[in-house]
Specification:
CATH architecture of the largest domain: 7 Propeller
Largest sheet: 4 strands, antiparallel
Order of helices and strands: EEEHEEEEEEEEEEEEEEEEEEEE
Number of domains: 2
Number of helices: 1
CATH topology of the largest domain: Methylamine Dehydrogenase, Chain H
Strand order of the largest sheet: 5-6-7-8
Strand content: over 45%
Shape: globular
CATH class of the largest domain: Mainly Beta
Number of strands: 23
């Protein structure tokens, strides 16, 4: 398996056999999309999350045991972050010049320098860390541990563990509102959690029915809405305050 990402005015992602760029400036007039370039990614292993560093114009691609780094303007591979076994996700703390990679096979998070891509350290987590996000309100990184139903919280500046949040269910993807709350899907419980990112405690548990097995999540911060993709082939839209 390999990867394809589609470029509209902004970037979004899906899986396929090569990295492809689709230009849609003429989509409305032509009634469709067209592939303008494919970017081959060498090596072996599966894929998971993509992360974009908007300021640096870089795309981080999880790939088996390392992170591939692409320049999204030149559409070229510019480097990699090695030795990230079972990599799932990449969190970007641009203001600190640091990135964080969840290593599902080694139960750890790798910290790396955004400019040089060199590893700066490694932090132990719970079992099988998967989704990972940076919370700008607290400057903390949340690594969601699929094998231990918890989140390991890391101070992004020091690289030290700030605490652990017991989730009481299997976590999937998450989003931060930038105001001190982190939201996370519990796929096996069909529930969304509202987590106080300062106090490191779950404040609310919201059922997602008729959405079953929620997995993907994105947030419209301005309108305080969560958009949650569900394996039951529906999308739930949830008010992030109520």
């Amino acid at each position: 398996m390999s990867l394809r990402f589609v470029r509209f005015r902004y970037s979004c992602a899906c899986m396929s056999l090569a990295v492809s760029i689709v230009l849609c400036s003429l989509c409305a007039a032509q009634g469709g999309y067209s592939i303008i370039k494919k970017i081959p990614i060498p090596g072996q292993g599966g894929w998971d999350y993509l992360s974009v560093d908007e300021g640096a114009r870089r795309l981080y691609v999880s790939h088996g045991t390392q992170v591939e780094v692409l320049d999204i303007d030149s559409l070229t591979v510019v480097g990699s972050v090695p030795k990230t076994p079972g990599v799932h996700g990449i969190a970007i703390a641009a203001e600190l010049g640091r990135g964080f990679v969840s290593n599902g096979q080694s139960n750890s998070v790798t910290i790396f320098d955004l400019k040089t891509l060199k590893p700066l350290g490694e932090v132990a987590t719970g079992q099988k860390p998967d989704a990972i996000i940076f919370d700008p309100a607290t400057s903390r990184v949340f690594a969601f541990n699929g094998g231990s139903n918890s989140a390991t919280v890391i101070d992004a500046a020091s690289g030290k563990v700030a605490g652990t949040v017991n989730l009481e269910g299997g976590p999937e993807f998450a989003a931060a509102d930038g105001k001190g709350y982190v939201f996370n899907n519990l796929e096996d419980e069909s529930t969304v959690l509202k987590i106080n990112s300062r106090e490191l405690k779950v404040e609310q548990r919201w059922p997602t029915a008729p959405c079953a097995s929620p997995s993907s999540m994105a947030m419209d911060r301005a309108n305080r809405r969560l958009f949650i993709g569900c394996r039951s082939k529906v999308m739930a839209v949830i008010d992030a305050d109520s």
